Amino acid sequence: MHRGTSDLATSSTYSGPRARSQKAGGWGEWEEQAGLCTSATPLNPAQAPADQPELAATSTSFAFKRLGLGAEPREVRAEPWAAVFLGKILSGSTRMSRMRRGDGRSWISHNFPFGHHKALWNRWFGIFTNLPFGIPFSISYKMYHIDHHRYLGAVGIDVDAPSDFEGWFFCTTYRKLLWLVFQPFFLLLRPYFINPKPVTNLETINIVAQITFNIIVYYVFGIKSLVYMMAASLLGLGLNPISGHFIADHYMFLKGQDTNSYYGPLNFFMFNGGYHNEHHDFPNIPGSRLPQVRKIAAEYYDELPHHTSWGKVLYDFMMDNTMSPYSRIKRPRKGNEVLSQ
């Protein structure tokens, strides 16, 4: 289990900044054993439980609405630019954030919609549900996300961990706010600087399909709908309460505890995406069953610190001067890693 090394790790909740020795200006600490907090369960399809059909149904419904088969794109086309930015984009960003995490990328990358025995179906489904975002990332996200599970925090492998530049520069309240707002750009660009991979055929299909779809949106619905679609996606991945999971999941609010779960009401909308300790321990178990994992292993998970508000996570991260993008554990590579392709 992802048990922290802090003497505060027996606290049941994280309720705000506490006395801690972690300071901004250097990576949290180097783990001597790189596998300490990596997945305890191999990504073995034969061990996977049943599919998660409700995930596929919800994602499909969301995608169809955003693809123009609902009223939303037409409403945006008729709105003045001010209304598009002040109303539609802000409301759409929350739905985009939910799609990205709760019933979208993470679970699809684990083959939950159709199961491991239909892995390619999940890749096609990921490309399809990627279309409303306007930015092609479904296929590449899957590759990097599996590396994240296998080599959590490993230098030059896990692109979920910020770069040295991010840790050095975004160290004040206002700079951290700026970093959170533009976090989508760092998430999308970071892999190409830290751990570039050869472009695969599926990635090419993902890119071509997305560009084609964007052109269709532009000609059918107009520039406002295209701007709305892409801006809502970026804001939904940035300064948005649901996107607080980007910080809550692996940032050290308590020294030594770099994987944290969230047990709050937003899990209802996120297919239990907040059960992050449980997810890393058992990545083959669908989100719908992670509460059962916590219940079965209560003696482990109930002792670990956890969050109850993603919004508060964002606020504490910005206002606490001991927190920065450096507040992550980074682990040295051992040299025998097998990366996803």
Write the layout of secondary structure elements.
Elements: H1 53-69, H2 72-78, H3 81-101, H4 105-109, H5 119-130, H6 138-150, H7 164-169, H8 173-181, H9 183-194, H10 201-221, H11 223-236, H12 245-248, E1 261-262, H13 276-281, H14 290-296, H15 298-301, E2 306-307, H16 310-319
Parallel strand pairs: 1-2
Helix pairs in contact: 1-5, 2-11, 3-11, 8-16, 10-11
Description of the structure:
The protein contains 16 helices and 2 strands. The model is unreliable at 1-51 (pLDDT under 50). It has helices at 53-69, 72-78, 81-101, 105-109, 119-130, 138-150, 164-169, 173-181, 183-194, 201-221, 223-236, 245-248, 276-281, 290-296, 298-301, 310-319; strands spanning 261-262, 306-307. It starts with 52 loop residues before the first helix and ends in a 22-residue tail after the last helix. It has one domain (52-319). A two-stranded parallel ribbon has the order 1-2. With 341 residues, the protein is mainly α. The longest helix is centred in the first third of the chain and has 21 residues, at 81-101.
